[in-house]
TrEMBL record:
GO terms for biological process: 'de novo' IMP biosynthetic process; cobalamin biosynthetic process. The keyword Ligase applies. This is Phosphoribosylaminoimidazole-succinocarboxamide synthase. Keywords: ATP-binding, Ligase, Nucleotide-binding, Purine biosynthesis. The gene is purC. SUPFAM superfamilies: SAICAR synthase-like (SSF56104).
Length: 237
């Protein structure tokens, strides 16, 4: 597929049209932002790692867990061919262990194992700082239909069941993560965006060392090393 004009530039990725109306190309950048763009920086090599990690996990989810995804084909170190979707403007967050905004908002100490995995929706809106909403808000604002929300919920827990077990097998606790879903032109809901150290909290099972973007958000140092460690655990490189 030929890369045509850029249609979108986000904080960490650019998206291009292709000569096939049903396919887009995603291009991963090294730019890092946190706190809705208030903190900016670069994580050297991040784009290459997030591209490979996302594609590896999406392929496994598709083949081994039956989760439909936008992944089509890795084109280069930073570029991937994906199915064209319209993104549902919800950030779908699954949590297995309390951390981050959940700990802050609810006063649950970071590291508390939750008795059941928990799902949250945020309304994807930079001006409003992605506020936490429930399914009724999503329906009332016309962000998704009841059917979409039910499909998204089922798929998100399926992703969690699969990834939690998979990461445990390589010595990593999957603390929490954010997913985004999209609608194809025929109306099917599929998993889109990325699954990477930018969008997941990964803790080493033994040492509880943070191996994700929290190292950047909280100025913990060795950010690049953490991203490389995830690549190493997945690919043995
Ligand atoms: O900040 P919070 O605790 O709500 O984040 C929960 C999870 O969602 C974390 O894994 C974080 O990396 C991810 N997240 C994200 N993009 C956002 C907000 C959160 O990937 N805009």
């Amino acid at each position: 597929s030929t890369k045509l004009e850029q249609i979108y530039e986000g904080k960490a990725k650019k998206v291009y049209k292709t000569d096939d109306p049903e396919l887009f190309i995603v291009d991963y950048k090294d730019d890092a932002t946190a706190f809705n763009g208030k903190k900016k920086g670069t994580i050297s090599g991040k784009g290459v790692i997030n591209n490979r990690v996302t594609n590896f996990l999406m392929e496994k989810l598709e083949k081994e867990a039956g989760v439909p995804t936008h992944f089509v084909k890795e084109l280069s170190e930073r570029e991937t061919l994906v199915k064209k979707v319209t993104i549902v403007p919800l950030e779908v967050i699954i949590r297995n262990i309390a951390a981050g905004s959940m700990s802050k908002r609810l006063g649950i100490p970071e590291g508390t194992v939750l008795p059941i995995p928990t799902l949250e929706f945020s309304y994807k809106n930079d001006d409003l700082d992605d506020p936490l909403i429930n399914d009724y808000h999503a329906l009332a604002m016309g962000l998704a239909t009841r059917e979409d929300i039910d499909t998204i919920t089922t798929l998100a827990f399926k992703v969690n069941d699969y990834l939690k077990t998979f990461f445990a097998g390589i010595g990593i606790e999957l603390v929490d993560f954010k997913l985004e879903f999209g609608k194809t032109t025929d109306g099917t809901i599929i998993l889109a965006d990325e699954i990477s150290p930018d969008t997941c909290r990964f803790w080493d099972s033994k040492t509880h060392e943070k191996l994700d973007k929290d190292r950047f958000r909280r100025d913990l140092g060795n950010v690049e090393g953490a991203y490389q460690e995830i690549l190493h655990r997945l690919f043995g490189e």
